[in-house]
Structure formats: structure tokens, C-alpha cells
Amino acid sequence: MKKLIINFQRIFSRFQAKLLLAFLVCTLFPLGIIGLIFYNVTYQIAEDKIMNSTILADDQLYVQINDRIRQTENVADSIQYDMYSLTQTDGGITESLSVFNNVRNDISLFKSTFDFYHIFIFLPDTQLGAEEGLYFYPLSDISRFVLPKDSRDNPGTSSIWFYQPGVRIPFILSEDQSFKNVIVCCRILRNQASGNIEYSYLILLNPDEFSNSLANTFESTDITSYLVSEEGQIVAHTDPSLCGTSFTGEKMDFYKHSEGGIVYDADGINYHVVRLDNGWYHITEIPVSYIKENTRILLKTIIVTLIISLPLTVLIIIMISGNLAKRLKKLSLAMENFRLGKSPDLASNRLIPPSKNPASYDEIDKLSITFENMQSSINENMNSILELSLSEEKLKYQLLQSQINPHFLYNILGTIKTCQTIGKLDIASQMITDLTQFYRLTLRKSGDLISIRDELEIARLYLEMEKRCHNDNLTWEIHAEDGIENFMMCRFTLQPFLENSILHGISRATPHVHIKIFVCYGEDTVIITISDNGGGIAPRQLEELRALLNQKTVDYDKHFGIGNVNRRISSPSFGNGSIHIDSRLTEGTKITLVFTQMEEE
Questions:
Q1: Over 50: is that where the pLDDT of 407 sits?
Q2: Burial 452-490 (b: 16+ CB within 10 A, else e)
Q3: How do the residues of the chain divide into helix, strand and coil, expressed in percent and rounded to 5?
Q4: I need a labelling partner for 508 at 20 to 30 A (CA). Which of 7, 135, 524, 562 fits?
Q5: What are the residues whose beta carbons fall under 8 Å from the beta carbon of 231, sequence distance 6 or more?
Q6: Of 175 and 63, which is predicted with more confidence?
Q7: Of all helices (H) and strands (E), which one includes residue 573?
Q8: What 3-state class would DSSP assign to 55?
Q9: Dihedral angle computed from the Cα positions of residues 222, 226, 232 and 235, in that order, rounded to the nearest 10 degrees
Q10: Rounded distance, CA 181 to CA 208, Å?
Q11: Rg, the chain, Cα only
Q12: C-alpha to C-alpha distance for 279 and 274, rounded to whole angstroms
């Protein structure tokens, strides 16, 4: 006995053992009492939650069904307007046919857009279109539908909803010629004096769409939901085979008195009854057995989980929570302070002490190491991505530049060939000399950007070559504000615009073209305007050009040179520029280029 006491004291001399003993003594006894209270409270809460979740799903279903009813009512209102237009037409046969076709198109659009089963329009037997046979029928054929008795009192501005079995739509609209049970939204307009029906139209809905919504809302088959008309006829049900059946008057009285809430019936069923906008009732039956079954499973799960996990959870939290929280907090602060592009100072902010043995690393230690490696890897990758992005942008620019040079060379060589063909060999020879000087200046500048001074010189050389082909029909002037020529711009920017001014500007109406080039300062930008007094651009072509400029695309079939220049100068790396074109036929064209002031690096 003494030895047993000594062993007992030895075991419980440890802090962990004392904590466990104190926990058992302080919790087991009250746990029994709390468990009983907890069981009753949890049972009630679980029951309420199950009931509330079911009612919430039922309310969402009610909104869905009501929205469909309102949608149908709105379409009925729209058809009412079409019917008014149709019946009030007093013009000739041509106008009547036009109005009839418009109304028929509207009816077809309503049917397809809102997925109605069909729409029937009943017109007086002698009215135009009454024998159309797809959507329009003689008023005498309305007898195929069994209208409710109170339809006679309907003023025509409100809808009559009822369930109609055995309806068949025309073969031309559906090869399925079987009879179909439908839900009908009906409007009837009567003559106020005689009481006779002037016209009527019926919107047919498939009850299956409501039955499917009712069946798919609740996972459990124990819950039953259905729609009932005011007369007690079931129009949609989670069990579609019950559609068309009816309740007794006593049952309907019970439903009407239960509207707007939850009522418990003596047969062990909770009824949730709400009234739809069309006067029907949406009823959901929630058996008490369904609630009890679900609450039992929930309570058993909670109790077993508490009994098993509570002691273990508390004990583990006491043992490791302090150290764990401290380590996680340190890791969290490191993550919060992480910034892209900023290399971590691993020497002063180590998440793991250097003295710790790697063999004892747990998941948090490995996560810390992974995070440290991730910081370095992300920063390296960001630098690589940045370099690749700059390289890609540079390659795109060079590709566009390489495309414009052959385009220009092809045009000049074509002009030289033309001069040789017509015998102007001296002009062709001089143009070859000018072209040599032109490319000597162009190729001498190997960078992606060129000074405005050199670009203007290239433009002048090009104009000299073109002048030799057009004699005295081409003149120009170039003006630049002081100091602006030292800024940089995209290579080969002005030549495509000058080429267009010459090619499209010289015509019979404008045999002489004078080109003006002005380079001036903007607000941290350079503004270059190229204007001519040539033939101008047609409005349609001008619209195409402006659309091409806005889209910043290159069309290799049309406006290649302008699209190429626009794509290059709009790049943020090469000026973030823009181009605007103004032109009028026989008055000339003005092109404005605006780009950021760039200095040579």
C-alpha cells in the first residue's frame, strides 16, 4: 500500500499529470449535468434550424414560382397592347396585314424567349388572321378550353389562371401530337355594352417545370410540396402523377386559414402555406418524423464527438498551444512584411533558430523554410519575368519595324522601275542615289529610337525622292521648335503618312500638293502635325482609319503603314503615343501625332 502511494505521488508530481487530474475532477461531475442541459437545448436548436432551413428553401422556391407567374403576367400585358393595335387597325388590307404580321412575330418571340408551351389568340371569326392556325384561331374555337365559371365576371384587365388537361398544339410547331396537361394564363376582353367576347388570348405553361422545381428543391423525399388552385385542384406536385386531382372543400378551408405561416396538424405534419400572386396556394408538408430523424442523428453525432474529442482537444491545447501560437505569429508577421521585389534579410529574421536540429523539424518548420525559399524564388522569378517582358516588347517593336522597311522599299523600287519603263533614266538614277543616302542614314542609327532631327532628315530625303517623280507638283515645309529635335521618337514614323499624302493627295482636283510638317512642345509631350492640301479622305474610309487607330491593330491588307506606326508608338516603352486624323474631301488632311518626350539614355 505504501509503495502504491509512493508510485501515485511520483506520477502526479509532474505538471502535466496534475493538470490532467485537475481537469478530470473539475469537469467530469459538471459535465454530466451540463450534458443533460446541452442535450435538450441542442435538440431544440437543431429542430429549429432544420425547420428554418426547410422554410428558407421553401421561400426561395416561392419566389422562383412567383417570378415565373409575374413574368407570364408581364407578357400578358405586352400581348394586351399588341391586341389593342390589332383590333384598332382601321386602314386598308395592306396596313392590316402589316399589323397582323408584327403581332404574330411578337407572339412567336414571347413564346421562344420565355419558354412557354404555347400561346393561343382567339379573334372574331370574320377578322383577318383568325384562321391562321398557328397562334391565331376563330373565337368559336375557344370552347376547347374549359374556362372557370367566374371568367364571366372578369373585366379583361386581369388574368384568369386555371389547369387545363388534354391540350394539343399544331403539328407544324411540334411533331409530338400527344395531348398535354397545361397551366393556362387567360385574358378575355368583353364588350361593355353587349357582354360578348371581343377577343381572348391564353398563355400555356408546362406544369412539369413547376413540378420539377418542387421536386428538386428538397433533398428528402419525405417533404411534399405542391401548388393548389382556389378551387382545390392540384396544378403542380412533387409527384407529377397527382397533378389534376383535387382536395375536398374542408381541406381547402384548412389551407386558406393557414395562409402565411406554419401550422401543425394532428396527423403529425407541419404545413407551410403561402398565397401566390395569381391566387393559388403554394403548400409544403414537413413531417415531424423527418425533423426528429434528422435531429437524432445530429445530436448523437455532437454528443459522441464531444465525449471523444473534448478531453483530447483540451489536453493537446494545454501542451502545445503556447509554443504553436508563438511560432505561427512569427511566421504570420514574416508573411505580412513580405513585399515583391524586396529581398528578405534572412540573417536577421530567421524563422527557425540555427541551432535546431533539422531532423526534428515539424510541418511548421518546413513551412517556414518553404516560405523563406519562396521569397527568394518569387523575387528571382519577378526579375526574370520583367526582363522577359522587356525583351518581348522590344522584339515586337523590332518585328513591326522590320515590316515597315520592306513595305517602303517595295514602293520606292516600284517608282524607280516606272521611271525606267517610261524612259526617265536620269530620274531613276538620281532616285537610286537618294535611296542609297536614305538607307545610309537609316541604317547608321541602329537603336530602337531615333532623334527627331534624324527622323526629319529621313522625311526630307524621302520627299526629295518623291519630288523627282512628280516634278513641281510636290512642295513642302518643315518647322521645329528650338531644342525639340534632340528628343527621341520611333524610327520610320513620318514616312508612311507622307507617302499617303502624296499617293492619295495628288489628283485631278488637286494636282499640286503642299505638305507642312510642324514639331512643337506639348505638356511633357511632343506634338507632330502633318497637313496637306490634297484630295482628302472619304468619310467612310476616315471612319475605318479611326477605328483601326483605336483598336491599335495592324491590317496587312488595308492601311498597313498607318496601323504599323500606330501600334509602335502606342507602346508604353516607345512613347505611349496616339494618332488623330482629320480630313475633308478636296480640302486636305491633317494628322496629329502625340507622344511622350523621350531622351536618349
A1: yes
A2: bebbbbbbbbbbbbbbbbeeebbebeeebeeebeebbbb
A3: 55, 20, 25
A4: 562
A5: 148, 246, 252
A6: 63
A7: none
A8: helix
A9: -140
A10: 9
A11: 43
A12: 10
H/E stretch holding 208: helix 207-217
C-alpha cell read off for 42: 441542442
**pLDDT more than 70, % of the chain:** 74
Non-local CB neighbours of 280 within 8 Å, separated by 6+ positions: 161, 227, 228, 229, 230, 235
Q: Any idea what the Cα angle at residue 175 is, between residues 172 and 177, rounded to 5°?
A: 100
Nearest to 429 by CA among 437, 421, 420: 420
C-alpha cell at 41: 437545448
Which residues have CB under 8 Å from 417's CB, separation 6+? none
Contact status, residue 114 vs residue 71, Cβ threshold 8 Å: yes
Q: Does the global pTM surpass 0.70?
A: no
- Which of 517, 387, 399 lies closest to 448, judged by CA? 399
434-453 pLDDT tens trace: 777 776 766 655 566 888 99
Q: Which residue has the higher pLDDT, 10 or 71?
A: 71
With vertex at residue 546, the alpha carbon angle to CA 545 and CA 548, rounded to the nearest 5 degrees, is 65
* Joined grid coordinates for residue 27: 469537469
Residue showing cell 541551432: 355
Helix, strand or coil for residue 275?
strand
Residue with cell 454530466: 32
Per-residue pLDDT tens digits for 296-346: 776 677 677 767 766 766 665 555 545 555 666 677 777 777 665 555 554
Return the number of other C-beta atoms located less than 10 Å from residue 1's C-beta.
Answer: 5
Q: How far apart are CA 584 and CA 505, in angstroms?
A: 11
| Average pLDDT value for the chain | 78
Helix (H) or strand (E) holding 271: strand 269-275
> Residue for cell digits 521648335?
481
Q: Are strands 118-123 and 136-138 parallel, antiparallel or unpaired?
A: parallel
Nearest CA-CA partner of 519 in 580, 463, 453: 453
Task: Report yes or no: 125 and 139 within 8 Å, Cβ to Cβ.
Answer: yes
Quickly list DSSP for 39-51: HHHHHHHHHHHHH
| Residues 6 or more apart in contact with residue 1 via CB below 8 angstroms | none
Measured at the CA of 429, the angle between CA 427 and CA 435, to 5 degrees, comes to 100
Question: Under a CB-based contact definition with an 8 Å cutoff, are residues 544 and 502 in contact?
Answer: no
Q: Lowest-confidence range among 133-137, 206-210, 471-475, 476-480?
A: 471-475
- Strand-pairing partners, residue 520, are 527
Query: Three cell numbers at 594?
Result: 502625340
Q: Which three cell numbers stand for residue 31?
A: 459535465
What are the backbone angles phi and psi of residue 240, rounded to the nearest 5°?
Answer: -55, -20
* 89 has pLDDT over 70: yes
Q: What is the DSSP letter of 485?
A: G
Please give the Cα distance from 246 to 226 (Å, whole number): 12
Confidence band (pLDDT; 50, 70, 90) for 268?
Answer: confident
561 contacts 407 by C-beta, under 8 angstroms: yes
Are the CB atoms for 465 and 434 separated by under 8 Å? yes
d(CA 224, CA 284) in angstroms, rounded, equals 6
